[in-house]
Amino acid sequence: MEQWLSLFEGFKYNLILFFVTILCAVPLGLLITFCSMSKFKPLSFVSKVFVWIIRGTPLMLQLFVIYYAPGILFNTPMRSRLIAAIIAFIVNYASYFSEIYRGGIEGIPKGQYEAGQVLGLTKTQVFTKVVLFQVIKRIVPPMGNEIMTLVKDTSLARIIGVGEIMMSAERFSKEGLIWPLFSTGLFFLAMCGILTILFGKLEKKLDYYKS
Amino acid sequence: MAILEVRDLYKSFGKTEVLKGINFSMEKGEIIAVLGSSGSGKTTLLRCINFLETATSGKVFADGECILDASDKKKIPAAEMRRRQLNFGLVFQSFNLFPQYNVLENVTLAPKLLARENPDFKQRKRELFAGIEDNARELLSRVGLSDKLDNYPCELSGGQQQRVSISRALALDPKILFFDEPTSALDPELTNEILKVIKDLAQKHMTMVIVTHEIEFARNVADRIIFMNEGKVLEDGTPEEVIEHPKNERTKAFLSKML
After folding, report:
1. Does B99 sit within 8 Å of A209, measured CB to CB?
2. A209 contacts in B (CB within 8 Å)?
3. What are the average pLDDT values for consecutive 10-residue runs of chain A, which has 211 residues?
4. A2-208 — its CATH code?
5. SS3 B172
6. Global ipTM
7. Which are the contacts of B165, defined by CB distance < 8 A and separation ≥ 6?
8. Cβ of A120 and B82 within 8 Å?
9. How many domains are there within chain B?
10. Residue B160 lies in a domain
11. Looking at the domain assignment, is residue B6 inside a domain?
């Protein structure tokens, strides 16, 4: 019983990491998309290089860098391991999301924008009233995938000592009790199961039309 | 006064010159069919007039007002651009309906957004929207789609989709309605549906410019035919003049292939 409680205690951190990351990375990703699709070349170049670096290096390495670099470079150590982990996850996932958004936006036929324009819609209205919904429909499946990966990636926070579920379980395995470590899988499975159902429902809801 | 006047319109894509000085004007209530082989610049002409392409040089007047002057590089405010845009309606070859909205919503979307710009929108919202919806229902019943109001575009045939898109353009009450090969994406049976709708509009004296490959239809409906070839207007006259007695060899060759 004590072991289970300890695992729940640890999983709380996984959940915090998960929800805060989703909440911040979803809009930040859109911002990155707009930057990399911008007609202002320097901005789009910088944001593309940024996305390349983030997607091209291991998340584990990014966790190290964000946790240790401020202390080494600027002599101002990160106060909170959890905040360092949250920042790393947000930046990493926003980059992945931004590429999913970009694919979704670029996949909308030009005719939709043109129809909006000749009907006298403003550029903002074309985006919010015509394009956005179609983009959402397109990106739900790949977003579901990415979000599922995030659930499991939260365990990486252990590497900079965030007391999440893996770390809780390791404490017991050091004392020779291995089953709590294996049981962590159940938590991730449960979470992913719930998300699978939710995304399935969402996809079905958006399935009322075909484009 | 001419409702539309196009003066010396040129358009190049990179080094390719697609429009090489187009001139024509039309009166209110007139119906012009634009004929020509693929690549003659018909569609580009329509797209330039409707601001979907930026003309390289030339001018366009609507109702006497200069709405496009390619030599004037000053940036025109977005609101003013939209006002100019709304002089015209455009029906696309591939319909371009909004897939996530049902038939009625497709027709009412733009007028409802436009109504928001009324100064007394807040007080009169209900009344304005009711008027827009009644008008949309009326337009859709005219094209025989009263029983499809709640359907989504993906549930309609191509001909039905095109009729929705015509209603959608008409809902904004344009001075001139342009058609860009409105039947090219349709099989012959459905083509007739659309031609009937256009004929019906002709009887109501709608001013229209129709880019088409349907020569028979052009002869029956249009008051005037413009024949384009390689970015120039080769013929401009009544169907009788252009189709029965073309002046130009190129026109003769085109017509003999098509008829």
Report:
1. yes
2. 99-100, 152-154
3. 86 95 96 95 96 97 95 89 95 97 95 96 95 94 96 93 88 86 92 96 91 73
4. 1.10.3720.10
5. coil
6. 0.93
7. B91, B92, B95, B96, B97, B106
8. yes
9. 1
10. yes
11. no
